[in-house]
Amino acid sequence: MDVIEKSADDKMSEMSRSIILEDQAKEEMETLLKHNVIITSVNRVLNWARGHSLWPVTFGIACCAIEMMATASARYDISRFGYEVFRPSPRQADLMIVAGPVSKKLKPLVERIYHQMAEPKYVMAMGGCAISGGPFRDSYAVVPGADSFIPVDVYVPGCPPRPEALIYALLQLKKKVIEPESIKQG
Amino acid sequence: MGSKRLADETVNKLLKEFDSLRHLPDDHITKFQVDVGDLFFLLESLKFDTSCRFDLLMDLTAVDYTTHFTMVYVLYSLPLGHRVMVKCDIPRINANILSISRLYAAADVMEREAYDLMGIDFVGHPNLKRILLADDFVGHPLRKDYTP
Amino acid sequence: MTTASIHEITLNLGPQHPSTHGVYRSILRLVGETVTSAENIIGYLHRGMEKLAESRTFTQFIPYTDRIDYLSPMICNHGYCCAVETLLGVEIPERADYLRVLMDELSRIAAHLVFLGTMAIDLSSTTGWMYCYREREKILDLFEMVTGSRMTVSYMRIGGVSADLTDEFEPACRKFIADFPAFIEEFNNLLTGNEIFLARTVNIGALGAEKAIAFGVTGPNLRASGVKFDIRRFEPYSVYDRFDFDIPIRTKGDSFDRFIIRIDEMVQSIRIIEQALNGMPEGPIMGKVPKLLKVPQGESYFVVESSKGALGYYLVSDGGTKPYRLHIRGPSFLNIGVFPEMAAGWKIQDIIAILASLDPVLGEIDR
To answer: Is residue A119 domain-resident?
Structure first.
């Protein structure tokens, strides 16, 4: 690669400068790829595994919890997807399904359970109440949506959402876990 | 609704026994209005008198009529098959009334709820603290002048 | 010489717990594994329904009644609509009343199935839970045929019901009634005679009749303690006085009795459903109610027999379009009040069985 010499008075043209930078970048990328491609494929395998066995924490609040239980039961059977292992301890779970309205009294406990979960963790807001407060939005006692204090990955509308809707939401979450780049911002 | 009303002679007996007792007309339930001073003794009579025998406290609540609160007690008699509603007005400022938790154990939680949501002090209650709202909640939401 | 001392430890149960039936919390004091005292902490599902009622019209509040006891929503709709209709003085068409009773009893069976399933899984029988939910799906299919919704149905309206039965409903319902005894037998074979289940429920947590009445306990919990009190018989509402059914009673009041009595009640509900289908009259499903509903000034107290106990609605109207005050007497609110008394002296595994046998629903505890 020729290095164009700069005279004290001559200015380099923009085009020449960008060609130099591009070449430098390409060289750096090649070395990076040589060292890191192994981690990238391990990540992909891990994401695939995580997406196929999301373990929810047992945390049903109200009516949506009953539909969540129905989804885990004989007819709708989320065991087909690998998600039937509800863990009572948040340390062992990676998905929190907020199923019902979060009252102001309950809010600090929901936060605590969220923080007790280990990374990577995901949150699903199930039902109108968890998304925005639902029919109780103007109540003095209800927090207007779970995403006002914890980050939510998937929103499932409904009051309560049918088990099929919850399964669709879980599959969307699986897609998000396995191919994070498929969820684009804005 | 086919619930038995309190027998007329029992109503008259109670009216004679308590000065401030009034029998209010209602198509569906025997309804009484009484003053605070007679309330506890009236409820005692309703529970233990052999022609009343109201052993089940079905409900205990309060209504905010902006000028005053009205306490509402609904009693059922399982052995005799009748029911009654007793109402009692109390002032809104420093609202307080005698607790009936010694008389009916069910009143324990119901009075705590009325205290929590309406701010009525139940004198003599063993454990009067908030039950539905968080302990640090400010105000009593079911009052008509509550602002969040 | 060493001295040993026994310390009481404080343990928190819930509100995030697989066996607390929702966001119920209890602070237990334990000596070893024996519970010396239990304190109820509720209110984690308090949504302020009674205050919301004051800013909704009478009809707009009907969907909120579904969310009070979300396991038997039809019964909650029914009680509220009757409380308003008492003040309104409107006559309900006969067919609407029969439909209401039919849906109430289906709802009662659905709620009892959840009770059986959750009590089974709390005592480690996952298969019991699957069997019960499988049956419950059939009832939810029936609800969906008529109302379009599985759980939060908002089926009843002030003056009647919102929709009539479809053609597919009656054959499906009759098939459900015909298949139900086989399910009861299958479930009894699985769980009711199981040695481990019996060891965990028989003579555990006996509740005496006097204490139950004093604490305001109603419903199957009271009837399991030997007290024959059922609102459908005490003060029949709707058309319940036309149906022939028994009120099951048990005498010991232990957790097993509270379990068995609900199986017996389901069998009785099947009888009522069959009679309702056979005797269903033709006619309109809504009474004459104005579009803009203004309820005359007054107050009413209406009680219905929910799957958990006596569900009461105290409604005060000031003559406008919205309630002035609505108070909901949730049966589980009183039922759970006796739990601390019942829990003292038992081991932790026993109090889980006791809590499950009381069948609390947090929606009507906290409202």
So the answer is: yes
H and E: helices and strands count for chain C = 15, 8
Chain B interface includes A140 (CB < 8 A): yes
CATH code of A90's domain: 3.40.50.12280
Query: What percent of chain B shows pLDDT beyond 70?
Result: 98
- Into how many domains does chain A fold? 1
In angstroms, the Cα distances linking A19 to A8, A14, A23, B141 are 21, 9, 6, 69
Whether residue A163 is contained in a domain is answered as: yes
Taking the Cβ of residue C70 and every Cβ of chain B, the question of whether any pair is shorter than 8 Å is answered with no
State how far the Cα of B119 lies from the Cα of A21, in Å rounded to an integer. 73
CA nearest to C366, candidates A33, A21, A78, B130: B130
For residue C270, pLDDT over 70 is answered with: yes
ipTM: 0.93
Q: What is the pTM of this model?
A: 0.89
Give the distance from residue C160's alpha carbon to the nearest chain A alpha carbon, in angstroms. 23
* Chain B neighbors of C218, CB-CB under 8 A: 56
A15 Cβ contact list (under 8 Å, min separation 6): none
Lowest mean pLDDT among A150-154, A165-169, B48-52, C329-333: B48-52
- Domain range enclosing A167: 57-179
The first and second tokens of residue C241, run together, are 């006085």
Contacts of A133 in chain B (CB under 8 A): none
Quick check: B80 contacting C, CB < 8 Å?
no
Q: Distance (Å) from the C-alpha of residue B129 to the closest C-alpha of chain A?
A: 15
Q: C321 CB near a chain A CB, below 8 Å?
A: no
Domain parsing of chain C, residue ranges? 9-366
Q: pLDDT value at position A37?
A: 62
Which of these, B66, B69, B111, B113, lies nearest to B90 by C-alpha position? Answer: B69
What pLDDT is recorded for position A29? 75
CA distance A153 to chain C (A): 21
Q: What is the mean pLDDT of residues A151-177?
A: 92
* CATH numbers and ranges of domains, chain B: 8-123 (3.30.460.80)
Residues of A in contact with B113 (CB under 8 A): none
Contact C314 B72 (CB under 8 A): yes
Q: Which tokens belong to C208?
A: 């005496």
Contact assignment for C337 to B57 by CB distance below 8 Å: no
* Residue B1: pLDDT band with limits 50, 70, 90: very low
Q: Tell me: the pLDDT tens digits for A121-146?
A: 999 999 999 999 999 999 999 999 99
- pLDDT-wise least confident of A51-60, A104-113, A145-154, C25-34: A51-60
- CATH no. of C9-366: 1.10.645.10
Model pLDDT, residue B3: 61
Structural domain includes residue A4: no
- Asked whether the beta carbons of A109 and A103 are under 8 A apart, the reply is no
With respect to residue A20, please indicate whether it lies within any of the assigned structural domains.
no
Strand ranges across the sheet with B56-64: B22-24, B30-34, B83-91, B68-76, B56-64
